[in-house]
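Final report, Chapter 2: Outcomes

The project's central promise was a pipeline that accepts a single protein chain and returns its three-dimensional structure in a standardized token representation, suitable for archiving and comparison. That pipeline is now operational. To close this chapter, we reproduce one record exactly as it appears in the project archive, with the input sequence first and the structure output second.
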Amino acid sequence: MYENIEKYVLNLVKQSSPEHTVWNQERIRQSKPTSWNYVDGCMLTALLNMAEITGDGTYFAFVESMLDWFVNEDGSIKTLAADKHSLDDINEGRVLFEVYRRTGKAKYQKAIQTLVQQVNRQPRTPSGNFWHKAIYPNQVWLDGIYMVMPFLALYVNSQGKEDYSDIVRQIKNVEARMRAPETGLYYHGYDESKSIFWADSETGLSQNFWLRAIGWFSVALVDLIEIMQPGEDRNELVRIFSRLCSDISVYRDPDSSMYYQVVDKAGQQGNYLESSGSCMIAYAMLKGARLGVLDSDYSELGQKTFDGVVKRCLTFEGDEMSLGSICLVAGLGPENNRKRDGSFAYYISEPIVENDAKGTAPFVMAYTEIRRLAFLTLRNINKIYPNGFHAVHNFSMDIRKGEFVVFVGPSGCGKSTTLRMIAGLEDISSGEFLIDGKRANEKSPRQRGIAMVFQSYALYPQMTVYDNIGFGLNLQGVDESEIEQRVNNTARILGLTDYLDRLPRALSGGQRQRVAIGRAIIRKVGVFLMDEPLSNLDAKQRVTMRYEIAQIHRQTGATTIYVTHDQTEAMTLADRIVVMKEGYVQQIGTPHDLYFHPANVFVAGFIGEPPMNFIRQTVENGCVHFGETKLDLSLKLKNADDWEGRPVVFGFRPESVSLQPVNDAYCFTCNVELTEMLGDYTNVYITEGEEQAILKVDSHDTPETDRDITFYVPYDSVYLFDGESEKVIED
């Protein structure tokens, strides 16, 4: 479900620059020049989260480039209008702390001081809360808490202090004045003077519960809980936050688990499920559960909300993705804009857009929390044997609970060694292995709660199927009646009920493997490890067992790591695949990702049957050659001129060819050397000069040997790789 999300985020980054960020739709619509603003600030915070989760330096590099452009050497900030006293302008400063920590550039520390001075000059209401902006005197908006308070808490920490009293006092004021006791929801705004047109003359409150305002508030609370040191101040925020999550959760849409633009008016005409606020609530619940300040049930609620956004609001067109159902903007007043009156009609009248950072940033933040749900974490795992052989290099990966992950690669690539380190059968030379967030490097195999199925069935020949399956439970001293119940249930799942009285020698290879699997799953452990479990079976049995293993995984929901050298097993079984070569991870991704978006020549050639065809050439006059056929790279690459005189690898899959003319395609004419008719398709081996390739065509179109054949490869089916690094060239 989450495939291509990271590619979507990277694509947004690649299209953006400090002068033009594609996610700031409000500014684009208004044709405003770039400025220091909270919309970009939200996205930069999200990108720092992505940098931490993925380890991809692209995200941090972009964040630093943005700050470098805006922050002058003296710490002043381009376009910052201090006289507007806007809390929104503080938000982007939040990322200064991390960028300063990592770069050490003094100008970022000076910029922090610039913003602290602005906060110190911010006007306050009589009760002590910051005005939202100079044009909103004596007004407190929920989103203002997010805009300024995390920045202030980070500043308190940077000074080595733990005095968060002003932050907590303002938030408690918000709770006392803006929370509706009958619903537990928070109003969008509060005017302490009770004089602005949108405010109730008695309470000073706005009229409705706007989702994104509550979302900002929830994100502010959970971020503050993470930033602040333990103590009474933090405990107060935990109390407010946990009550908010409990109160708003009852307003979830039962089908999608998303929330409505006006939270408590689900059935009112025009109201809609809004993605930005839903992502904020999802993020807050996921993070709160991770921090241990919410029950673990909220992690599931947050994930359901995020999944609802993915299913309803994320659309795909080719490789392009868009996040929709984002309210562009909503506010209250000022006096010269009476349309913004806080009414239901107003909230549903604001534009609904795609890919604006007020939606994409919370979406990315929630996604990073989804990524943190990892049940198994491998961080820079290395295996070096006493003789100096480095078998596994810096293996890093998060594996989610219930995920089916396949390690695949040729013999000696390190896949089984990695599996054995996870099992505790091999020591980890360096790096860290965590199970459910807890370090497990030093734990014995028995302590890890892991069951393993080996290539050899390892059954006790003198024991019946019943006794083999129940053997581990006997060793644990489990009551005989429970053993019987669990053995019978396991046998039913595996289709072994009629064979329980048989000895292993009376079973087929597939049946023996099912017994070995049964011995693992009966233990009710959290993780199953399978090391080449089908390699001893014949082709027909492997097909059957692949299906049965997939069914077992669906029924048990257990986290499964499966090792194989067979890419067909990997493609048919895996949620995600790890491709390894010579101890290094080449690529991690879904089967779809690896097939359609290989990271390098090795992955492209390893995944797919028959393997991808490669033409290795040095670019001459913008072309590579397949025999006498010239292949113009400018038809595929926008920057083809940059590759003149450099080696490239031109690749296409055998099944991507057409024997009929098609538009936007390379045309080849080659001699047919050999054909292999394999039922519904034929492998056609062709030659042109010294070049060779394989085509996969419908068996009805099988050509004659020793004859020329013309075929076409669409431009969008061609892959180009750097001939030196062998990494894919992005077109």
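Archive annotation: Residues 374-591 form a domain with the Rossmann fold fold (CATH 3.40.50.300).
This record, like all others produced under the grant, will remain available to the consortium after the project formally closes.
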